[in-house]
Structure formats: C-alpha cells, structure tokens
C-alpha cells in the first residue's frame, strides 16, 4: 500500500535524531533518515510518527 504523503511535507520534515533528510519507503511504510543515524520512522494511517523511541535503528 502506498503512503499518501505530500511532497511538500517530505521537503520540510527532518529526522528528529540527527536532523537529516527523510525519504519515503513505501514498501515498509516508513520514513528513512538519509543522514548519519539511518533511523526508520513508521507511518501509520498516512501520519509520520517522528518519535525517536518509535524509530527502528538500522541493521548493523
């Protein structure tokens, strides 16, 4: 299922952990940080959950 996030929203959102840019991963329903931390934040009902405690850390 494709997430319904406006492109302007992705342009202004930033990773709350490191401030990096976020990219949408439709297959996983996540916003993934392209910055230094690489955290993946869930998107539930087309609403990004940008809480570090809810983020998935990248696989080492």
From TrEMBL:
Domain of life: Bacteria
InterPro entries, sorted: Trm112-like
Recorded coiled-coil stretches: none
Secretion signal, residue range per the UniProt entry: none
A Pfam family the protein falls into: Trm112p
HAMAP family: UPF0434
Similarity section: Belongs to the UPF0434 family.
UniProt name for this protein: UPF0434 protein GCM10009727_17860
Species assigned in the record: Actinomadura napierensis
